[in-house]
Amino acid sequence: MMVFHPQNLETLNSKMLKEKMKEQSWKILFAECGRGVSMFRTKKTRSLVVRGIPETLRGELWMLFSGAVNDMATNPGYYAEVVEQSLGTCNLATEEIERDLRRSLPEHPAFQSDTGISALRRVLTAYAYRNPKIGYCQYMTLLAVRCALVDQAVFEELIRDHLPQLTEHMTDMTFFSSVSLSWFLTLFISVLPIESAVNVVDCFFYDGIKAILQLGLAILDYNLDKLLTCKDDAEAVTALNRFFDNVTNKDSPLPSNVQQGSNVSDEKSSHTRVDITDLIRESNEKYGSIRYEDIHSMRCRNRLYVIQTLEETTKQNVLRVVSQDVKLSLHELDELYVIFKKELFLSCYWCLGCPVLKHHDPSLPYLEQYQIDCQQFRALYHLLSPWAHSANRDSLALWTFRLLDENSDCLINFKEFSSAIDIMYNGSFTEKLKLLFKLHIPPAYTEVKSKDTSKGDELSKEELLYFSQLHVSKPENEKEAESAKHSPEKGISMDHQGAISRQTSLSVNFGPTSAFKEKHFQFIQFSKTLYNLFHEDPEEESLYQAIAVVTSLLLRMEEVGRKLHSPTSSAKGFSGTVCASGGPSEEKTGSQWSFAFEQILASLLNEPALVRFFEKPIDVKAKLENAKISQLRSRTKM
């Protein structure tokens, strides 16, 4: 530390002499009680900490009191290794660090030279490198904010107990929350002059959060009369800010140009100066009876409340964003969010190999904090989808998941999830058909076959996760694929929330190669899906006849189109027809066929039974209620 506080005979003024006397007092203590990890903590130790640790010993004692010295001893060379590994890294975190380096305590001598700036850069970069999920921010982590909010709640309890007259005057306790957040996040560094703030940090490393709580109570008590006369929050905040501006450290060895509190001239300020040492001593004398056990108990009691408050805030922000793009009401979205989140929690709770909550990162934006994988999506699909009665419901769930997973990370968020559910519940005939259409072309579609034939179309967890990660390439002719995205003659893009906006040409290929056979199967599977959806419907017979008519019509249209475009091949003919099972017969022609979405839509619109089926209203409220009841029951029936 002395690198930043050079001394010579001329600078040995009264303050420096006091600093030397402090150093001597600590040396005497070391002789009596030991030094380092073997040092006893006595009343004399606390008294010396309250007076302020000398600059020459501050680094050593902060390491000792915080326990960092033990971590360094058990991990020798670890920090140097991380620093070396982080050298040369360039990412968003390092850019933000560089931007903030010169703004971090610019008034302190340590950060007015390249030596101090480089040291700070190494610490922050190494931390961001070691903790990539956290990275870097000015107050470092969301976890720190959560801890500060818990301590705020504890602080409010202590105010009620020790300063009841203040709580009676301030009917709204949120005032104390807004004022004290920075106290707990920065240990008063953001509100006190730097020469006074370091004394607070001395006490924090020695006594922990108890020191901050005691000091906060002492500050409110010192300004009690002024706060009781304040008519609103703004006036109270002004009174506290004036108080902080007048907190000084008369024994500080820092140069006068650094001492912020000393920069306010006595003529300009009519407020009484308060020495930080006296303030800390008073906080110990008045509120030293607060026990660590009581603080721990209050922390535990308030932790759940703080977490619930943060989770509620997250939910409200997510619903506000999602509600702009769906037809579901806010109440229905709220219910859907609860079911979505509960499935994530239940799947982790009932899984023995999953000790922690997967796919949850509170440091991410609100929409990305909770995400589900394909297995969890399948469970929700079975509970919520009006098409879950279909025999191939596992395949539909898989294809829907693949369609929504646009970034191919095998996870989807609530916005993506609700976009699909909203189409199934509230979509028009065209929107629902678009969704089904998209499920049967790449990248959503992939041929699915269970290894266990006795289970029919049901997929095991391992098979489901495997197929969800399977990459399906784009069509061979990239130009045709791109034109199919934009040309109304070749295809159509689904603009509902942007969740389903990919190439839409459904290919039916009759040819000798396996690739042609795979594409040919898309149309067969599309027909089978429609047949499965109609099963046990009151108009089942009419629906089967309608889809058979539509399928036959489409194949005849393609046969005519092929003959018109390839006159020389008309002699070969084409015998593709749709049988009752939904599978057309084949004849090898070597030609590639595709049905545009408009062709299928126009054909289906001519069948009233099909239109009635897809436009049938769904009781969303009843569906959500049944899903909530069945969700836990499906887990406990084992």
Structure description:
About 12% of the residues have low confidence. The two termini are 64 Å apart. This protein has 638 residues and is mainly α. The strands form three sheets. The chain has a two-stranded parallel ribbon with strand order 1-2. Helix 8 packs across helix 16 and helix 25 crosses helix 26. Among the domains are: 129 residues, no CATH class; 156 residues, Cyclin A, domain 1 (Orthogonal Bundle). 59% of the residues lie in helices and 3% in strands. It is elongated and about 105 Å long.
Task: Briefly say what this structure is.
The chain has 638 residues and is an all-alpha fold.
Provide the descriptors you would attach to this structure in a database record:
638 residues; mainly alpha; Cyclin A, domain 1; two-stranded parallel ribbon; two-stranded antiparallel sheet; 28 helices; elongated
